[in-house]
Amino acid sequence: MAVCNGDSKLEISSAEQNGSCEGAVAILDAGAQYGKVIDRRVREMCVRSEILPLETPAFAIREQGYRAIIISGGPASVYAEDAPWFDPAIFTIGKPVLGICYGMQMMNKVFGGTVHKKSVREDGVFTIGLDNTCSLFRGLQKDELVLLTHGDSVDKVADGFKVVAQSGNIIAGIANEQKKLYGTQFHPEVDLTERGIEMLRNFLFEIAGCTSNFTVQNRQQVCIDDIKEKVKKSKVLVLLSGGVDSTVCTALLNKALNQDQVIAVHIDNGFMRKRESQSVEEALTKLGIKLKVVNAAHTFYNGTTTLPISEEDRTPRKRISKTLNMTTNPEEKRKIIGDTFVKVANEVIGELNLKPEEVFLAQGTLRPDLIESASHLASGKADVIKTHHNDTELIRKLRDEGKVIEPLKDFHKDEVRALGRELGLPEEIVSRHPFPGPGLSIRVICAEEPYICKDFAETNNILKIITDFSASIKKPHTLLQRVKSCISGEEEEKLMQITSLHSLNAFLLPIKTVGVQGDCRSYSYVCGITSKESPHWESLMFLARLIPRMCHTINRVVYVFGSHVKEPPTDITPTFLTTGVLSTLRQADFVAHSILRESGYSGKISQMPIILTPLHFDRDPLQKQPSCRRSVVVRTFITSDFMTGIPATPGNHIPEEVVLKMVNEIKKIPGISRVLYDLTSKPPGTTEWE
Question: Does the structure show a pLDDT above 90 at 601?
Answer without folding.
Answer: yes
